[in-house]
Amino acid sequence: MKRTLALLLFLSGCATSGYGHLPAADQSDVHRIEAYLNGIHGLQAEFAQQGPDSDQSEGQFSYVPGHLRLDYVTPHSMELVAGEGRLVLADRSSGAVTHLSLRHNPLGLLLRHPIHFDGEIQVTDVRHGDGSLQISVAQADNPSQGLLTIQFSDVNGQLSLIGLQGVDARQHHFGVVLSDVHQGVTIAPAAFTPPAG
């Protein structure tokens, strides 16, 4: 946590938009990631989420460029719909509905459409692993508002979204790990209509 806070403070003092400061190979990977995320016609997966509190939750993850939906099964039924600048979370057990702006939420960095990691977004890190690739991004004009790391499998040049890690301005951390990922899934636009309330 101290390392993340130090990174955010460092970034806030040297904001650089885009990814022109990165080595050429990393810039190429950023282009690949942009093309992949903008080209997804529909992605569904099972997810396990840790945080922002200490509880773990699970359910179904649905994504199309600009929109995200999480249908929670455990610890109890909830529905999260995010896109068009806002996030709405409906708790089926209590009936409570929470509305949040994506402007200061790390998920907002993923839900712009089309996605271009330049201008208002700063690429802070690109990392490669054995069959994996991840990119970390923040708001260029105010990186301390949050950091999002988007994780992919990268096998034979083919990317697949496998996880998200984020920390917001209040140092709340969350992580989402995807499994049983299906791409090219047709998802009805109504699935991304925010719940009423």
TrEMBL record:
The keyword Transport does not apply. InterPro entries: LolA/LolB/LppX, OM_lipoprot_carrier_LolA-like. The keyword Mitochondrion does not apply. Keywords: Signal. CDD domains: LolA (cd16325). Coiled coil: none annotated. Residues 1-17 form the signal peptide. This is Outer-membrane lipoprotein carrier protein. It comes from Gluconobacter kanchanaburiensis NBRC 103587.
